[in-house]
Design goal:
Shape: globular
Strand order of the largest sheet: 6-5-7-9-8
Number of helices: 22
Number of strands: 9
Largest sheet: 5 strands, mixed
Oligomer: single chain
Radius of gyration: 27 Å
Helix content: 55-70%
Structural class: alpha/beta
Mean pLDDT: 88
Length: 562
Amino acid sequence: MGSRSSIGYAVAMVLLAAAALAIRLPRLAERPFHGDEANQAVRTGILLEEGEYRYDPHEHHGPTLYYLALIPIRLSGAKTLADTTEAVFRILPVLFGVGVVLLLWPLGAALGRGAVLAAGLLTVLSPAMVYYSRYYIQEMLLVFFALLLILAGWRWFRRPHGGWAALAGFAAGAMFATKETCVVLFFAMAVALAGTMFWARLHSWHGRPAREESWARCPCHSSAGVLPVKEVGRPAPHGGKMPPPLDAHATWSHAALFVGVAIAVSVVLFSSFFTHPRGMLDSVLAFTTYSQRAEGTGSAGIHDKPWYYYLHLLAYTYRTAGPRWSEGLVLLLAAAGAVSILLVRPACAAASSGPDARLLRFLLLYCVVTTAIYSLIPYKTPWNLLPFYQPMILLAGVGVAALFRRLRPIPLRIVLALLLAIGVAHLGRQCRLANFVYPADVRNPYVYAHTSTAVRRLVESIDHIAAVHPEGKDMLVRVLQPDADYWPLPWLLRQYSRVGYWGDIPDAPDAPVIIADPSLGPVLQERLAGEYMVEMHGLRPSVLRLLFIRRDLWDAFMAPRR
C-alpha cells in the first residue's frame, strides 16, 4: 500500500505541475507589458546585445531575472531586443511559478501529502499566483528561492548534510540577488526559527522524568484521531528514529558552507561575473534607498497604502463594475490551518509519523511575521503580497487536511468536499477572468497602473507611417515627456533605431513622428515648422499621449485608402 500511495502522490504532483504550466502558458503576449516589465525587458536587451549589466542600487532590483532570462531568449533564437516578444520574457516567471508547485512535492513528508496536494491545487488556481507568474518581474523568482531555502533548511535540520547546507546557501544568495525585500524574508525566517525553538523548549517534555500515559488526543495523526503514547520523554521524529545528534564541528562547517555559498552566488551576480566590482558595494548601499522608499518618502509616497491593503485585496475587491473578486477561501483555510497548528499538544510532537510539528510551527510564525511586516510597510504594490501569500497557501493546505481529520462522519466529509469543490471552482473561474478576460483592466484587482491595450493603436499608427517613410523604421521618432514617464514606449518602439527622449521641447522639434505629453501640446504646435496631424492615444488609465504625424507622411499613408 505504501508503494501505491507514493506512486499515486507522485502522479498527482506531476499532474498539478502540468496543470500549472497549462494555465500559465497560453496567450503570454496578449497583455501589453506593464511599465516595470518593459523597463526590465529593455535592460535585459542591453545585456543580450552588449553583454553588459550594471546593478542599479536605486531601481530595477537584482540581477537574477536578467541573467536567467537570457536562457529562453537565446533558445528562441533572438539576437537583439527587437527580435524578442513579451512571451519570450514571460516564460521565465511561468517556469518559476510551476517550480513553486514542484517544490511542494518533497514537503509531503513534513506537512502530510493531503495538505501538500491541497496547497498545490490552490497554488495552481490562485488568481494572484497565476497572474504574477505571467509577469516579467522578480516576485515569482523570490517566492521560489524562499521556498527552496525553507525546504533545504528543513532537510538539513532533519539530517544535517553539507549538500543541504550548500543548497540553502544557494537559495539565500539567489534571494539576495533577486530583490532587496529579501531582507524582510530573512528576518521573518530568523524570527520564525527562534520562535519555533522557543516554542519547542516551552512545551518540551525533554529532561522530565518519563512517565506512562494511556492515550493522547492528537488532531493531526491517525484516522481515528487518537494516538497511543507509551512514553513521553524525548520526542521521536518520523519513522520512529531519532535524528543523529548535531556534531558541533559539522554544524559550524555547514554554517560556513551555507554562508560561503550564499556570498559566492551574490558576489558573482552583483559583480556581473567579476566585470563590475562596484556592484557588490551597491548591493549593500541599495538598502538606504529601499528603506526610505518603504517609509513612503519622496515620490514613493504615491504607492502608500493602508496596512490592510493586501488582506483587503485578497479577501474582497469590487471596483464599481465587473466581477466581485475574492481569494477568501485561501484566507479561511489558512486560518483553519493556523488553529490546527496551535492546538497540537506536546504529545503530538512526539509522534512517530505524520506532519512535522516543528516545520508547521515555523511556517505559521513565518507567515504571520511576513504578513505583518509587509502590511506595516506603507509602500505597497499588489505583487508584493506573493512572498507572504505563498506560505499562507501552505497553511491553507494544512487547514484542508485538518478539517478532514476533524470531521470524522462520512456525511460531514462529503459536505466539506462539496464546499471545497465549489470554492476551488470559484478560484478557477476568477483565474480565467483575471488572466484571459480582464488581464489589463482596472476592474482586475491585480492590475496596477497597467499599460492600456489601446497603446497598441499608437504603435500601429507609427508602423503605418514608417511603411511610407523612405527610411522605414530608421526614421526619427521624438518622445517629449517632462517627467520621464514614458514607459513602456522604449519597449514598444524597440524596432525603431532612432528614438530620442527629451524632457522638454527642443529648439527644432520637427520629426516624422512626435509623441508628447498633452501638457506640451499647445507650445509644441507653435514651435513646429511643418504641418502635422494629431491623434490622442491612451498610455495608461487617465494617462494620455499626443501623436504628431507629419502631414506629407499622413497623406502618403492615406492615398491608397481614399
